[in-house]
Specification:
The protein is an alpha/beta fold. Helix content is about 30%, strand content about 15%.
């Protein structure tokens, strides 16, 4: 608050919005930086499915992504097949009940995804879930 000169002017009752705008802009920048970090695995265009299995969602699956150029990513690390098998075995020995979420790009063939599923199974995974994007329901 500001005081005027002398008794005739009194106090000003204006609200200073500059600090509020500063705080909102800082929060906006923080959310813009953090939001891309929340996605696990590599960015792929998931195939669309009309029905998804909501009841079998696991809290913390191991995310395996296959990009359109056939690169295989385990979480955020690009691996070849031998290194992937070794990393999967290491993770599954540490936590045997952990499932693997396989996110394959929509442009891949069934054979590409199937070979990755076979590799995951040979590494000792108890279950493999396929990542899909739910189709919007018709109005």
């Amino acid at each position: 608050m500001a005081f005027g000169n002398g008794p005739a002017r009194g106090m000003k009752a204006d609200i200073n919005v500059t600090p509020l705008v500063d705080v909102v802009l800082v929060l906006l920048i923080i959310f813009m930086v953090v939001t891309p970090l929340l996605q696990r695995g590599k960015e792929v265009d998931l195939p669309k499915a009309s029905h998804t299995d909501e009841e079998n969602k696991q809290v913390d699956p191991l995310v395996l992504s296959i990009t359109p150029d056939h690169q295989i990513w385990l979480e955020s690390a690009a691996l070849d097949e031998a290194a992937l098998a070794e990393a999967l075995k290491r993770e599954l020995v540490a936590n045997p009940t952990r499932k693997v979420l396989l996110k394959g790009d929509a442009s891949l063939t069934v054979g590409d995804v199937r070979s990755a599923m076979d590799l995951v199974r040979r590494s000792g995974a108890k279950g493999v879930a396929l990542g899909v994007q739910e189709k919007p329901s018709a109005p």
